[in-house]
Amino acid sequence: MQFLSRSSFEPLVPSLNLWFLVIGYLVMMAFLIIQELLRRTPETKTLQRGSFEKGSMLLIGVTLGVGLWLPLIVYILGIALFPITIVEGSVALAVMLIGLGLRVWAAVTLGGYYTRTLTTTKDHRVVTTGPYSWVRHPAYLGVVMLWLGFGVLSSSLAVALVFPVMFAAVYLYRISVEERMLVEVFGDTYVQYQRRTYKLIPFVY
User: Fold this and answer.
1) What's the pTM value of the predicted model, to 2 decimals?
2) Burial of 86 per CB tally in 10 Å (0-12, 13-18, 19+)
3) How far is it, in rounded angstroms, from Cα 159 to Cα 190?
4) Domain count, the chain
5) Nearest 5°: phi and psi at 156?
6) Within a domain: residue 127?
7) For residue range 172-201, what is the model confidence (pLDDT) as tens digits?
8) Is 185 in contact with 120 (CB distance < 8 Å)?
9) Is there a domain that residue 177 lies in?
10) What is the longest distance spanned by two Cα atoms in the chain?
């Protein structure tokens, strides 16, 4: 992979790399807006943290902030930038859009159970339809795919390598504390669901 200095890279940026980065930011903004629109009740919008959170919500918030600012900072500083081809940019953008679609599908399937924090409602049940018939955490898979594609669109090898590792680690931690809560709340019902589904990636993990 060829790395370019800021001065030598500059002529290429407006034609492809800058446009892909801007489009990546637009998709991320759409993701943030759609999430808010899908949460319609006070229970789903609440920021009140329960005993099950174990710092996972704060960790997600911090990595979200880092994820949104880091590509812009790295791009402005010109750190280890590489020229993105139409194919590379298009594939990365497609991964982002598929991830966004998966996140929305999962949220719509959950309906009123799509909460911001780790909480359950009085009528809560284990959802096993839609994407939840394949994996237990499709919404988190969608988010990791979003950041994976966005990392490539940053045109920085450092960001492209850090993003998937960072967000996978954060959401795997979130999954671990969330599943402890679900086992405690639903008992054998959720344990049986765990046994017949994959955690995050269909047919893999």
Assistant:
1) 0.87
2) exposed
3) 36
4) 1
5) -120, 125
6) yes
7) 999 999 999 999 989 999 999 999 999 999
8) yes
9) yes
10) 61
